[in-house]
Design a protein that fits this description.
about 210 residues, mainly alpha, Endonuclease III, domain 1, 2 domains, 12 helices
Amino acid sequence: MPKSVTPDYWDDACKHLSKRDRVLRKLIPQFGEARLQSRGDAFTTLARSIVGQQISVKAAQAVWDRFAEMVSGPSTRIPPAEVLELPADGLRAVGLSARKVEYLRDLAAHFHGGAVHVRQWALMDDEAIIEELIAIRGIGRWTAEMFLIFHLMRPNVLPLDDLGLLKGISVNYFSGEPVSRAEAREVSEAWAPFRSVATWYIWRSLDPLPVEY
């Protein structure tokens, strides 16, 4: 397991959010030293997100383990070039659907061919990175935003397509009444420039176990 990385802005974000938002002022202390953590490399993180689409966490892990074994042995770092060399029927045999095989190959082709600018990401804004990622088959805006939060650890991402975030805002700010994206965005205005951190704590209010990608 590669070493976990925690954002260096986390403590400052917690202080900022506690001053600006009454809900987060109460929520943040409940989770002690728990932090967002990033592991692995970019290609592997995105490949795992594709493998896990529309199946349970347990099933996704089983398929991933077989896939990783096939590529280069049990590993947390999958080389894109090796994925491109694997036959489709071999990938299907580990439990991947035909569509996921296509998605993984497209992802591998984008990384191997340099269509995504991994080394430039540090200098690119969030929307520019999202545009690069959603050009890959099987990756939509939600997956790209999760990647920004959990892998690149960008501090100010607000994933308005995330049902957990909308539910958490409903429960914590609107007494359980349904909320629109516009209402969620309005609540989040007080969170800037640390919307990712606020989102992480809103998720925790629904499920105390930290989410990892």
